[in-house]
Amino acid sequence: DMADLLSVTGLVKKARDMFPNRKFDQLIQNAGILPTKHSLSPQGHEIAFAANVLGPHLLLRKMIDEEVLKEDGKVIFTAGDLYITLKGTENVACTPDFTYLDRKGG
To answer: What is the DSSP letter of 40?
Structure first.
């Protein structure tokens, strides 16, 4: 669960324990959610921000700090724009800027 920062930290520990003498060549960051209503992560962050930004950042940071990712390892971030086609997302971010962009199509 990328929105749960303890889960992300646990994933890095598990990878290190499972492969103690190996390092990853690549990290592909593909997590992404667009909730239909406001909710919080276990640590109290807005759920989409936690899953889409904080979790992936923490995963990369931990993999570097714990030397699980090779020094010259490659990191790939994916993104999508499915949110542009959704209606009724005005309350997701609860901000005027988001609502404006949502109504203008991105």
So the answer is: B
Place of tokens 């390892």: 73
Structure tokens that stand for 10 in this block: 């646990």
Query: Whole-angstrom distance between the N-terminal and C-terminal Cα of the chain?
Result: 27
Burial class (CB within 10 angstroms; exposed 0-12, middle 13-18, buried 19+) of 1: middle
Among candidate residues 33, 36, 49, the one with its CA nearest the CA of residue 92: 36
Per-residue pLDDT of the chain (106 residues; tens, 9 = 90+): 999 999 999 999 999 999 999 999 999 998 788 888 889 999 999 999 999 999 999 999 999 999 999 999 999 988 776 666 666 555 555 555 555 556 665 5
